[in-house]
Amino acid sequence: MDLGPAQILDTLGAPPEPDLLGPHAQEIKALFTRPFLVLHRASELYTAGTALGLLLDLGWEARLRTGTTVDELCLDLPAQARIPLAWMLPFLAQEGLLTRQGDRFVLAGSPRLDLPGIRALVEAEAPGHATNFDLLDGVRSHIPPFFTEGRAGDGLLFDLALFPLWLAYFRNGNLGYYPNNLLTLLAFRQDLAPGSRVLELGAGAGSFARLVAQRGTEEGWLDRIVEYRFTDVAPSFLRRAQRELKTEAVGLPLVFQALDLNRPLGDQGIAPESVDTLVGINVAHVAHNLEVVLRDLRSRLKPGGRLILGECLKPVLGHPIYLEFFFSFIRSFTDVELDPRWRPVHGFLTPEAWLRALEHAGFRKLESIPPPRPLLDRHPNFNVGAISAMA
Ligand SMILES: C[S@@+](CC[C@H](N)C(=O)[O-])C[C@H]1O[C@@H](n2cnc3c(N)ncnc32)[C@H](O)[C@@H]1O
Predict the structure, then answer these.
(1) Is residue 284 very low, low, confident or very high in pLDDT (cuts 50, 70, 90)?
(2) Which of 141, 188, 319, 350, CA to CA, is 20 to 30 A from 328?
(3) At what angle do helices 235-248 and 207-219 cross, to 10 degrees?
(4) Please, which contacts does 163-170 make with residues 24 or more away whose CB atoms are closer than 8 Å?
């Protein structure tokens, strides 16, 4: 099996038909440029190549050639190895790099992993994304002690060497990340009332705040926001945002605050019914107890206020998506309380699972942008969406 530029171009996929994209079809359709399609497919295959490379780096080629189950592979490994391996083996089978026979996974033949070729193709077709691949290479080179010494994934993946690559990833110029922000913006700006107090959860590198400032200025709605509370659990992100956003999110009435969504928001100074719009992009899934966190978020919203979530979405819960590779090593992503009704698995969910959890927490008037079905059935790689929910 070859994994390189030719395979990317052969399996590029078509953009979704506009009638699947709902009322914002025009703006959403514009995301599906050829550079985006190339980058998306290339990222998927590069992740597969990286995951297989990692298993080989760890010295497991012989076991894979004989064929192994997840259980067998985990036998002499730290317990934490199970979650990423239970994700990686089916993902590699899905991408055609391993063969699946029941619950056994076999490495057959000699897959040719032309990772430099994939990088070169992206550089030609979607220039400016080398750091996305550097990040994948960085995960491969930094993560082995997670398996060999039981070291925590967070410490290995967010060290000083990799932090700049995460910052480079979470930016609007990254075609692979921008759709998260754009779809959330489409939900955010509709029904944004004058005098709005906004709180962003897990605001991180500040790419959404920058987009709000830019589009709000261009489109003339920025002055409806009277306060934009930029929050994150990580002081390093907050310090950086405080330094940079003054000049890079001009006109946004920013207030900065450390905030952990897994601690009661009232204990962190957020009064009940004090916020008009709560927004969080790829952060709500770290809720340790999703039911408790969603109820807490709802209680902070004024009546009629809205929670807007941007999330990576899965077509079905058991379908591995490449973006999960990074996160399967991160404790806050994997270590959550499960409930078959509102929280069937850790990490990314299906749109339906989100809607069920939000409804159960008392939210109403739920709206997904774009409408997730039949879009996700026909385009299972369309892995992003926004949900707006009223308190
Ligand atoms: C996927 S990133 C989102 C990046 C951000 N939206 C941006 O555009 O740059 C998730 C963010 O959530 C933050 N986060 C993780 N756990 C959190 C928690 N318990 N409470 C609040 N934020 C958290 C991380 O520090 C990170 O900045």
Answers:
(1) very high
(2) 188
(3) 20
(4) 163/236, 165/131, 165/134, 165/135, 165/138, 166/135, 166/205, 167/205, 167/240, 168/131, 168/132, 168/135, 169/131, 169/132, 169/135, 170/204, 170/205, 170/207
Query: Is there a single domain that holds both residue 197 and residue 327?
Result: yes
The verdict on pTM exceeding 0.90 is yes
* Contact criterion met (CB below 8 Å) for 385 and 352: no
Kindly state whether residue 323 falls inside one of the protein's structural domains.
yes
Asked if the model's pLDDT at residue 231 lies above 80, the reply is: yes
Ligand 1: distance of its center to the CA of 200 in Å? 10
Q: Which residue has the tokens 């499960």?
A: 338
Q: Which residues of 45-55 are buried (b: 16+ CB within 10 A; e: fewer)?
A: bbbbbbbbbbb
Is 146 contained in some domain?
Answer: yes
- In whole angstroms, what is the distance from residue 105 CA to residue 209 CA? 44
The answer to whether 253 and 216 have CB atoms below 8 angstroms apart is no
305-333 pLDDT, tens per residue? 999 999 999 999 999 999 999 999 999 99
Question: What's residue 111's pLDDT?
Answer: 85
What is the Cα–Cα distance from 150 to 135, expressed in whole angstroms? 21
377 CA to centre of ligand 1 in angstroms:
29
> Which parts of 194-343 fold into alpha helices (H)?
207-219, 235-248, 290-300, 324-327, 331-334
**DSSP state at residue 68:** B
> Which residue CA neighbors atom 27 of ligand 1 most closely?
204
273 lies in the same domain as 245: yes
Residue 130's domain comprises 2-169
Instruction: Report the residue among 232, 297, 300 best suited for mutation to probe ligand 1: largest number of ligand atoms under 8 A from its CB.
Output: 232
Q: Please check whether residues 16 and 95 belong to one and the same domain.
A: yes
Distance CA(157)–CA(163), nearest Å, equals 8
Q: How far apart are CA 145 and CA 77, in angstroms?
A: 11
Domain shared by 113 and 10, yes or no? yes
Tell me, yes or no, whether 212 and 353 share the same domain.
Answer: yes
Q: Give residue ranges with CB within 6 A of ligand 1.
A: 170, 201-208, 232-234, 237, 259-262, 281-283, 286, 332
DSSP secondary-structure letter at 17? P
